[in-house]
Hints:
CATH topology of the largest domain: Heat Shock Protein 90
Number of helices: 21
Radius of gyration: 32 Å
CATH class of the largest domain: Alpha Beta
CATH architecture of the largest domain: 2-Layer Sandwich
Protein name: Chaperone protein HtpG
Number of strands: 23
Subcellular location: Cytoplasm
Subunit structure: Homodimer.
CATH superfamily of the largest domain: Histidine kinase-like ATPase, C-terminal domain
Low-confidence stretches: 99-103, 114-127
Main location: cytoplasm
Keywords: ATP-binding, Chaperone, Cytoplasm, Nucleotide-binding, Stress response
Amino acid sequence: MSTQAETFEFQAESRKLLQLMVHAIYSNKDTFLRELVSNASDALDKVRLESFRDKDLEVDTSDPHILIEADKEHRTLTVRDNGIGMSRDEVQDLIGTIAKSGTAELLQQLKETQDGAAAQELIGQFGLGFYASFMVADRVTLLTRRAGESTGTRWDSTGEGTYTIETVEEAPQGTAVTLHLKAEDQEDSLLDYTDSTTITGIIKRYSDFISWPIRMEVEHTDSEGETTRQIETINSMKALWARPKEEVAEEEYREFYKHVSHDWNDPLETIHLRAEGTIEYQALLFIPSVAPFDLFTRDHKRGVQLYVKRVFIMDDCEELLPEYLRFVKGVVDAQDLSLNVSREILQQDRQIQMMRKRLVKKVLSTVKDMMSQDPERYAKFWDQFGQAVKEGLLNDVDNREQILEIASFESTHDAENKTTLREYIERMKEGQDSIYYITGGSRSKVENSPHIEAFRDKGMEVLLLTDPVDEMWVESVPEFDGKRFQSIAKGQVDLDEQDEDGKDNERQQEFADVLSWMSTKLAEDVKEVRLSSRLSTSPACVVGDNNDMGPTLEKMYRAMGHEVPPVKRILEVNPDHPLVSGMRDSYDKNGESQELKETAELVHGMALLAEGGELREPAQFTSLLANRLAQTL
């Protein structure tokens, strides 16, 4: 018996995406089976864990397995598991809707790429494996019952725009996905997916490492021509991480990565290790080649699974790696942990903390080796994940030096390639004791900042820090290798040659009166007006005191809802600029005037705009500027 089926429509974007997937993107259609088997394996992991946590759960875990059923007569292929199953609401949320978030972004990226392989890589980032079934099927039916529930749910769709959902009274525990297969078409890479040899070959290639038995009725013909059929396990079920490295082929590593990460790309780096001694564990970790689209969202899940003695414990174990390494995927299998663990227990577990320390050091040392042995691959890694790794400079004090060693930054030394801090130090000028940097929203903005003029003229390299996290870590990291970090937009910067004839004092006296007057007139906006040694062509710039919060960081805190008191900054003026020397001459000759007061306001406004800042009174500034320009005509 079943209730009346309800029909729903895919969202417009979902329909477009589904059509793109089915008709325009995939070249290797065999991967649909890998995705279905991977989903079934996840369901078996979850039901075992759920039965362990909830002793009252009515669930059968006596023979967890995946069964593949092929029906040549009706041209159907069913992938069945007796795992956790899904409730009706879960079917609606997880299966009835494509790409719960990010669909619009994915469509835009797909439109921008003409490369089929690149498009296929994009699909993997959005977790749409189930829908790969429509590559080989005209219709897909899903029958599922969640463990502990009495009724099941049937989902059915042709992928053309609508799907139906109904509640069924009788359904076995777990999930069965039945594909009503398209006709075989070798030219379109559509194989006969009812053929046991074809299915076995795909399983061996993609899913041999699955830790649950994958069964299928296999046909055998003996020497006398008699044919028999029997159910066989067609995967080896040997945990890849438990095998010696020399026995594992690169292809096996790649396919295992795709299984645990649901990513369609090959990994950038594989880390296979076995720790013995006081704490024993095995780990197989991967660094992806492409950052997931949600790497910087709150919903992003970390990718390391925890096993204890080959028993799956949890999917995204946050205690095994810190948040700044959240992009690392893989498996950690501990030998001595209790199976009765929770996230709260793991947070306090000494063995987990020791494993975490070793895993972090291993990942960072792997990146360091990549940097020295394969700079091109390292550059790809840093472009994809550098912004996340730098978050560790804020909250992982123990590994701060190692993170600084593997970090690279844009600088004024090279417009194309980034530089490491070690390379920066090797190029430092004689007598230079600081690593100079400037922060901002983009390279073009900070590279053209007035603050950088004198450094460029004297050939002194400046790091150009343009990631949002850079504003945070430079405030808390004092030095690297004995060289302190110094913002060129903060504090006093003395780049002049030694003043042997007292010209600096003489100049200070020449401008003392006009600087004092400007400090008074601009007191609402600045804490001081002084002469600058960092300017060569611009008339003025605004800088902060050494311990002041920078304007970008101030904006970030306000955007997050924090109340931050406004910070007054210092206006530095260039005594060699005609505008500044002209203001001095005018004040010395005529004293205060309305025109001079307006000029001072314009100089301050121009300094703010030059660094990409915001004017407190933009309308007033444009009015003053317009009036002054009119007087020149």
